[in-house]
Amino acid sequence: MEHLIKDGLKLGFGLMRLPRLGEGKEKDPIDVEQFKVMVDKFIASGGKYFDTAFVYTGSEAATKEALCDRYPRESYYLASKLNASDFAAKTEEEAKAELRTSLERTGAGYFDFYLLHALGEDNINKYEDYGIWDFVWDAKAKGLVKHAGLSFHDKADLLDKILTDHPETEFVQLQINYLDWEDPDIQSRACYEVCVKHDKPVIVMEPVRGGLLASMPDRVTKVFREADPDASTASWAVRYAASLPNVSVVLSGMSSIGQMDDNLSYMRDFKPLDDREKDVIARALEVLLDVDRIPCTACRYCAPGCPMEIDIPRIFNVMNNYKIYGDLDKYRGIYQRRFRKVRASDCIKCGQCEGACPQHLPIMDLLDEVAAVME
Q1: Is the Cβ–Cβ distance between 336 and 59 less than 8 Å?
Q2: Which listed residue, of 237, 265, 269, 337, carries a Cα 20 to 30 Å from 158's Cα?
Q3: 369 burial type by CB count under 10 A (0-12 exposed, 13-18 middle, 19+ buried)
Q4: How far is CA 248 from the centre of its chain?
Q5: Do the strands 11-14 and 247-252 form a parallel or antiparallel pair, or are they unpaired?
Q6: Which residues contact 275 (CB under 8 A, 6 or more apart)?
Q7: Mind listing the pLDDT tens digit for each residue in 260-289?
Q8: Rounded-to-integer distance, Cα 158 and Cα 160, Å
Q9: Cβ-Cβ contacts under 8 Å for 341 (sequence gap 6 or more)
Q10: Beta strands in the chain (DSSP E)
Q11: Residues 6 or more apart from 181 whose CB is under 8 A from it?
Q12: All residues at 6 or more sequence positions from 349 whose CB lies less than 8 Å from its CB, including other chains
C-alpha cells in the first residue's frame, strides 16, 4: 500500500469543531484570530494536513482567512468534501455545485484531497444516481482535485461493495477509536480490514469519539494516570489510531489552543503504542464500557435541518455527562440553564435528524429519554 501523504505529521487538523465566539454554538462566528494562532502552531510543528467540508458551518470561509490567504499553497494539504445527502443538497445540480462553492469559499484553487462525504446505506444511491463518482474524477482530470476518495459511516460489507465497484477510490476516511474498534454497529476494525484488503490508505476521523475519550470519569482516567501520569487521556486515543499501519493521518477536531498544544506535544515525535500501552487501553476500555452513554460524536449533521432548532448534540452531551459522572442535580441545572428556549421535549418527531445521523441513532427516542430525566 502506498501512502498518499509522504511528509508532515501523522496528525491532521480537523476543521469541524473550530473555536467559536459567543456561546460557542454552531451559529456563532468562528474565532478566526484564535484559529490563526492554531494554524501557525500546527504548521510550525510540521503539520500539513487540514480537513474541512462543505457542510461544516463557516469552516471553509474561516480556512481561507486563517490558512489559504496566509500560507503558500504548496506548503499544506487541504481536504474538503461533497455531500449529496438530502440535508445538504436537494438536487444533482446542488450537489455538484458544492465543489465550486467550496473552492470559492476557501480560495484554495484546488483540493489535495476531495471526498464523497459520509457514505452509507441511506445515501449511497444519491451518489450513484447523481453521477457524483464520475463528476469528482472528472474534476481530478481538470486539476481541481489531486486525490479523490470517500468518508464512510456504515457496515463493512457495504464498504467492501463500494470499493469493489469503485476500485479507482484512492483513500478512505473512517471513524476509528478504541471504543468503536469492536463495536457491532460502527465496525471500525472490520471497515479498516476492508481497506487493508483493497490496499487503500486510511485517514482517521473521530479518534477521540467527539471528545468523549478526552474527558472521562476518574475511574477511567485513573487507569491511564497510573500508567503515565504525564500523558493526557486524549493522547492515548489519538496514538491508538495513529499506530495502525495503514493509517496515513489521524484527524483531531481541535477547538482551542490548549488542545492543539496537547496534541502536538506527543505527535511531533510520534511513537506507536507498545504492547504494555495497548494493555493499558484495554483495561481502561473495560471500565468505560460499564457506562451507558449515548454514542453521539457531535458531528452536528442533525442540527441544521431541525425545524425546531433543537441543539441535539449539546443536549446529548449534557445527558452523557450525567450518565458518566452522576450528580443529577448538577447536570439537570446545567440543562435548564443552557436550554431555556428550546428543549428536548420540543421535538415534533419529523425524523429529519435520524435521516442525517451517520451513527444511525434513534434520536427522537433519545430526546424523549433526555426530556424524561432532565425536564
Answers
A1: no
A2: 237
A3: middle
A4: 16
A5: parallel
A6: none
A7: 999 999 999 999 999 999 999 999 999 988
A8: 5
A9: none
A10: 11-14, 49-51, 77-82, 111-119, 145-152, 172-175, 202-205, 247-252
A11: 188, 189
A12: 364
- The CB density around residue 294, as the number of other CB atoms within 10 Å, is 20
- DSSP-H helix ranges across 132-255: 132-141, 156-165, 188-197, 218-227, 233-242
The stretches of the chain forming alpha helices (DSSP H) are: 32-44, 59-63, 92-106, 124-129, 132-141, 156-165, 188-197, 218-227, 233-242, 257-267, 275-288, 312-325, 328-338, 352-356, 363-374
SS3 102: helix
* Residues 91-104 pLDDT 10s: 999 999 999 999 99
Q: Among candidates 347, 358, 298, 369, which has minimal Cα distance to 25? A: 298
Find out whether 153 and 175 touch, Cβ atoms under 8 Å: yes
The 10s digit of each residue's pLDDT in 145-170 is 999 999 999 999 999 999 999 999 99
**CA 317 from centre of chain:** 16
Reported as half-sphere exposure (CB side, CA atoms, 13 A), residue 212 has a value of 31
Q: 113 - beta bridge partners?
A: 79, 147
Residue pair 59/16 in contact (Cβ under 8 Å)? The answer is yes
Give the distance from CA 146 to its chain's centroid.
Answer: 22
| Grid cell at residue 204 | 482517521
Q: What is the DSSP letter of 92?
A: H
Name residues whose C-beta falls within 8 Å of residue 33's C-beta, 6 or more positions apart in sequence.
Answer: none
For residue 82, list its beta bridge partners. Answer: 116
Task: Give the residue among 79, 98, 78, 80 at the shortest CA–CA distance from 88.
Answer: 98
Total Cβ atoms within 10 A of residue 144: 18
